[in-house]
Amino acid sequence: VQLIESGGGLVQDGGSLSLSCAASGFTFDDYEISWFRQVPGEEREGVSSIGVRDGTAYYASFTKGRFTISRDNAKASVFLQMNRLEPEDTAVYYCAALKWTGYGSLGSFDPNQYNYWGQGTQVTVSS
Cβ neighbours of residue 112 under 8 Å, at least 6 residues apart? Predict the structure, then answer.
């Protein structure tokens, strides 16, 4: 099982980054995929989640319309477009997979529910 994030980097305040998460080794269509982020010394927090089949997107309030999540089931990939980045967005960003074969979508930001995690990609926003 692998979740491989890419697209992180250094960007100036107000800039944009596009993160990608490529999945392999499990049945992608059975999993909700979410993005989390973590700053050293703080708890991991949910950023955005996208449903398995209905594609419903969920966002943490701090994204404030700046982030957009999408998924391509054919390519077993999930993307996070981040615009108008702020220094407070600096963190390691992780994608995670949660098995869900039920009706609808969960939109969970509880990291303990997730089955698989990527290694993370660093996002740094300079002021």
Answer: none
Average pLDDT over residues 43-49: 97
d(CA 15, CA 11): 6
33 Cβ neighbours under 8 A, 6+ residues apart: 21, 23, 49, 50, 71, 78, 95, 96, 97, 98
Residue 4: the pLDDT is 98
Helix, strand, coil tally for the chain in percent (to 5): 10, 50, 40
Strand bridging mode 121-126 / 9-12: parallel
Round to whole Å and give the CA distance between 114 and 127.
Answer: 33
Do 106 and 32 meet the contact criterion of CB atoms below 8 Å apart? yes
